[in-house]
Design a protein that fits this description.
396 residues; eight-stranded mixed β-sheet; 11 helices
């Protein structure tokens, strides 16, 4: 590799981009790779701000990329972490029904999980209380193979391994333009110009814009949704032993507010889901007019908002009212009180949204000549990263 030319360039230093680079290295250690990251370190956005859950794949549509990749990817990630000293733990998880209506929906979730090869079973209230003594529920699904992991640690370790192998990670380097030529791709960045024989776009929150720069005629658009969290004070951490989830609303890809024991200690509670006012808008004060206008004038978002405005208002109210957030948490653990909680970090989810107002619920990986665009990599992309990276590497 010359200083500015590589055989493959990967845009994005999050977990999907790094896992892709790692799989490319494993397939062909002699090729030279270039990873371009606009921040000063890896895992600065979606990867570093998620809840650290190792998903089992119980929710996803059988046969989908999410379902196929989650199971294999989780196993591969656990093996990677064990081999390279990255913290992970198999905690188990319960999906809890608190009403008869929710209980009736457990069977369809169980059926999906079993079709996806997930070890899971229905349990009654007595067994639920033996697993989570403070949890309220009339029935639940127990998923023993779910867990938690240090995703930032995974990214740092992959970055170290890639650099040790002679590959280049360029930080503080945002891609501003892509020009495809007959024999290579030129990448204009905020620091200098690079070129590569092939390029992989793992730009996360900006993946749709980068895809269009590559010439991809992408009709859908990324709409950012912010998820806000609280954390339990140490005196209240005993309320949650593992992972406690509600029965999800089938109309939305968001799983609802839940309790997550974290790999570094502590318990996280949330998230809600509100429109972010910027693609990297982690509070109500973070506003980017271009990002906001792009969302508010997009036909897909307008249709989504028109169809779900009541739910949207409830999510905004829960964002602004700690009392409302606490009431949502009390559905699962009635003993929770406002004084048990303090504000935690928020994250922003890059959600690809169709023009018809439907949320794209699967991974979207498209090729445009010499550029492979990962246009939608929502949950469980982090869990499935090594297998997703393998699929991308095979295309390269």
């Amino acid at each position: 590799m010359t200083d500015n030319h590589a055989e493959v360039a990967v845009i994005g230093g999050g977990i999907v981009g790094l896992a892709t680079a790692w799989q490319l290295h494993l397939r062909n250690p002699s090729q030279r790779l270039l990873i371009l990251e606009k921040e000063a370190t890896v895992a600065s956005h979606q990867t570093g701000l998620n809840s650290g859950v190792l998903h089992s794949g119980i929710y996803y549509r059988p046969g989908s990329l999410r379902a196929r990749n989650c199971h294999l990817g989780r196993i591969a990630l656990q093996e990677f972490c064990s081999e390279h000293g990255v913290a992970w733990e198999q905690t188990g998880k319960v999906i809890v029904a608190t009403t008869p209506d929710e209980a009736s929906r457990l069977q369809s979730i169980l059926d999906r999980g079993q079709q996806n090869g997930v070890r899971c079973r229905l349990i009654d209230r007595e067994e639920l209380l033996s697993l989570e003594p403070h949890c309220s529920g009339i029935a639940a699904i127990h998923v023993p193979e779910a867990g938690i992991v240090d995703y930032v640690g995974v990214c740092r370790r992959i970055a170290e391994l890639l650099q040790q192998a002679g590959h280049r990670l360029q930080f503080n380097c945002r891609v501003t333009g892509i020009r495809q030529r007959a024999d290579k791709v030129d990448l204009q960045t905020t620091t200098e110009t690079f070129s590569a024989a092939q390029v992989v776009n793992c730009g996360g929150l900006f993946s749709d814009r980068i895809a269009r720069q590559s010439g991809q005629r992408l009709k859908e658009r990324i709409v950012p949704f912010r998820g806000e969290y609280y954390e339990l004070h140490p005196s209240a951490e005993h309320f949650c032993r593992s992972l406690i989830y509600p029965v999800p609303d089938p109309r939305f890809p968001f799983l609802g507010v839940h309790f997550t024991r974290m790999i570094g200690g502590g318990v996280e509670c949330g998230p809600n889901a509100v429109l972010a006012l910027a693609r990297e808008g982690y509070t109500w004060k973070h506003i980017n007019l271009r990002d906001l206008l792009e969302s508010l004038t997009y036909s897909g978002f307008l249709k989504l908002a028109a169809a779900n405005w009541k739910t949207g208002i409830q999510e905004i109210y829960r964002s602004l009212s700690k009392a409302a957030f606490v009431r949502s948490l009390q559905k699962l653990i009635p003993e929770i009180r406002s004084e048990h909680l303090h504000s935690g970090p928020a994250g922003v989810r890059a959600q690809l949204l169709g023009r018809d107002g439907k949320l794209i619920d699967d991974f979207v990986i498209q090729r445009e000549n010499r550029v492979v665009n990962v246009c939608n990599a929502a949950s469980p992309a982090a869990t499935a990263c090594l297998n997703v990276g393998r699929i991308i590497a095979e295309q390269i």
